[in-house]
Amino acid sequence: MPRELPSEVTSFVGRERELRAVKGLLKRSRLATLVGTGGVGKTRIALRAATDLEAGFPDGVFLVELSGLQEGGLLPHTVAAAIGLPEQTARPAIDLLTDYLATRRALLVLDTCEHLIDACAMLAEVLLRTTSELRVLATSRQPLDAPGEHLLVVPPLTVPEEDDEVCDQYEAVRLFADRAAAVRPGFVLDGANAALAGVLCRRLDGIPLAIELAAVRLRALSLGDVVERVTDRFRLLDSGSRAALPRHQTLRTAIGWSHELCSPPERLLWARLSVFRGDFDLAAVDEICCDGEIQADAVLDHLIGLVDKSIVLRSQDEAGVRYRLLDTLREYGREWLVNLGQEQAVLTRHRDHYLRLARDFFAEWEGTDQVGWFLRIARELSNLRVALEYCQKTPGQEETGLDMASSLWGYWLARGRLNEGRRWLDQCLDGTREETSARARALWMTAFIRSMQGEHALAIPYFEEARALAERIGDTSTQAYATQYLAATYMLLIDPEPALRNFGEASALFHKLDDRVGLSINSYHRSPLATATGDIQGAAALADEALDLLGSSGERFHRSYGLLVKSFALMAGRRVDECGQVARDCLMMKHQFGDLVGTGFVLEVLAWVGAHQGGHRRSAWLIGAAEAIWEKVGHPRFGFALLDGFHEEAERLARDDLGEACYAEVHLHGFQRPTDEAVARAITTGVDDQQLYAWNELSDTERQIARLLVEGMGRRDIAERLLISRRTLDARIEDILGRLGLSSPAQIATVLADQPPATNST
């Protein structure tokens, strides 16, 4: 799902001129790049500017963080993921982007471009050439040199001159004072220390990151001690022309000073942590960074030391504690790791750790904690990519890469990252020809991706090769799955004879293996074929059989598909109420995985249900929401003829009841709303359809007022919270009641009672 702009966790100091300049550039041009040395604050300025400009981009402001991406070929995929476009067709990601952004007024923030400068320049050029309203804001240590690019050089913060006694008016000093007060409560600038702060900031050349690192030292040192130590360490700055020194040299010196303040084990741990990309957990640190030089029982103390010195960032969410190196500090640590001659050894341990994680995921994917494993892989994706890249670049590791890429199959499928999964699988298959189970598995997986993306005929030879190889090496499980998905491909080709023959062969193999999940897949794949050929009762029975085979386990991905095909059979049998309940259960599971295509299918089913229950506004709204998904996917309903027929029937009923003008209005509203809201609306039951439509038409402020009334907050308190007059609040409450068709605020609870809780998406 698209990521929101991150909230600021520390105060924003100064930079008024730069903010005005960025906003001006984006008004005059479509590509603006903030350039400057590492640590100078480019990202912070870009995010603040993007937040301030958000209202002017009704189609979205999208942040694309590139520091964790090392391969330019994945740039379009990364941008597509940031925007929320799935990769479940064979179309190149760049085509999906250009089609989706063609006329949208949106802002794309490409953060940290310098290591992918050519790829970013090409992407910006293509997107701006093929769209009309898109704006791109980039941050980089060097210009993109793309056509139409306008540059803003981000300078260091202003610092006082040596003889300037009024120091607190300068940005660098204000930043230092703010951060110093955070680490040493009660710290304030006064006549005695302001001059020292000015000296410190001047010595650090106004680099924000260097200033923040210096402020951290106030936990242990006085300001005078900090200034003295900086003077000693920065003797280089006092010789020659400071203006001739590259800005990054100043930052490297600041980082080097912070490095010297670390103990030897902390320095070594810092170097080893540099192999991580993005964030990581303590278990990974224990496995990858510990050996005879860093003992496992001491690594946590060293890690805490790095956190205290602001070398490592610590965060915590429902998944637990995570750690992350700032990018500039990671690069510095990597240089030390190389100089120590330990890079290959640590990278090997990194690969081994994430290979085990991928294998464990494959083993547990269809188990009781499926959602938990899915979320864990989503968190670790950046580091899994590091391990995959290592396997591709290191001679003799091709087979390991194939094992890892195929072990992540469940994630590629459930998350809709089919293009990326296909890319890794194909590259690894090209790198080795050894006849192994990993190769056979990868062959049928890449074949199935091709089939899902509409390349059915191209997929069949891969399935045949996978099945033959698996049979030769005695891998019955892989043989069964290759046969099963080959049958499903023939089903999509509407070729019943080979479909049924291969379904039968796969079923026999699954029975031999006592593989209940495989048998469940076999049943729910056969169900739509039965529906399409008119055997409605048989289709429903096959769907129930698929669900029964999964039992009461925590497996949810295949269960969701069993529910989906059951809803098709119930639709065909005109069992409307049952169909609606089954589809809502399915939708909640689909949304947990961020399965956008599956979500689109279920919205279509529920639109049909709404039309046959007389909820024509709901039906029109959901058809619009589904069409927004199909526009992102680029393949409406994947050409599934059975569902096309149901869609046309629901649309006709809604148009006939509402009339063309009303239908178009409601449909457009559904099309424009976020997917999360569409899911929430679709699974809501028990409330009058007109009230639901009216609720979705309320503004965010009006919904907030309604919820506060239901929570029991008094009108005066609500007015004070929202900073409006009591008279204005009373008028808005009356308007809300009128639009919902209610006579008193107490009745609002009936509308809210069935509103579902917020759903998580990853």
Q: Indicate the multimeric state.
A: single chain
Strand line-up of the largest beta sheet: 2-3-4-1-5
What would the principal axes of the Cα set say about the shape?
globular
According to DSSP, the number of beta strands is 7
- Estimate the mean pLDDT confidence: 86
Descriptive tags:
762 residues; two-stranded antiparallel ribbon
Q: How would you describe the overall organization of this protein?
A:
It is a single chain. This protein has 762 residues and is mainly α. It is 64% helix and 5% strand. A 5-stranded parallel β-sheet has the order 2-3-4-1-5, with helices on both faces. It has a two-stranded antiparallel sheet with strand order 6-7. Helix 21 packs parallel to helix 23. The longest helix is centred in the middle third of the chain and has 22 residues, at 343-364. The protein is globular and about 90 Å long. Mean pLDDT is 86; it is low at 233-249 and 753-762.
